[in-house]
Amino acid sequence: MNILSYGLLGLLTRDESSGYDLMLRIQPHWQAKHSQIYPILSRMENEGLLSARWVEQTDKPDKKMYRVTDKGIQKLLDWMYTPVSTPALRDELNLRMICFQVTNPIVMKRWVDERRDWFESRLAYYEALLANLPEEAEQPGSPYFGEYIVNTKGTMTAKTGIQWCHWVNGLMNNHYQEREATRTH
């Protein structure tokens, strides 16, 4: 079992879902593609952690709906009581910024502007996810509470990222304006 497997089990504790629906629900929090999710679901079904049923659809192919079993819930609970690993930080922009001295400031500004645009799109994305949650999601007893706090973290991270981009651009603008002012005097 990998972390994605446990995440899928967790999502299925709330309601029955198709593999596609699970992919949409997990992607805001974990990078996962169809090619990863479907084999995991199949393996967990074979291990008795999930049950599945086929649903006929008229204008689309039939879809397989998954539900977590008692054995799956126990497996999830066993994982939930293990220590959480530290987050992995892998951001190519960070490495490029460290190497900034060998490039052109215009290129760096483009990177920062692109990242700001990305953070702005992520902010809109997480805000839309929050808007679609029921009001009860803010209550710790709600089955949607986990999504509420994680999506709120997403909005906070995006807002901080946007602020950072503005800060970096401000530092660069001030530096190059001061440099230009000293050259013209």
UniProtKB/TrEMBL annotation:
The Transcription regulator PadR C-terminal domain is annotated at: 89-169
Q: Which residues form the Transcription regulator PadR N-terminal domain?
A: 8-76
* SUPFAM superfamilies from the UniProt entry: Winged helix' DNA-binding domain (SSF46785)
Q: List, alphabetically, the InterPro entries matched.
A: Tscrpt_reg_PadR_C, Tscrpt_reg_PadR_N, WH-like_DNA-bd_sf, WH_DNA-bd_sf
Q: What is this protein called?
A: PadR family transcriptional regulator
Source organism, top-level taxon: Bacteria
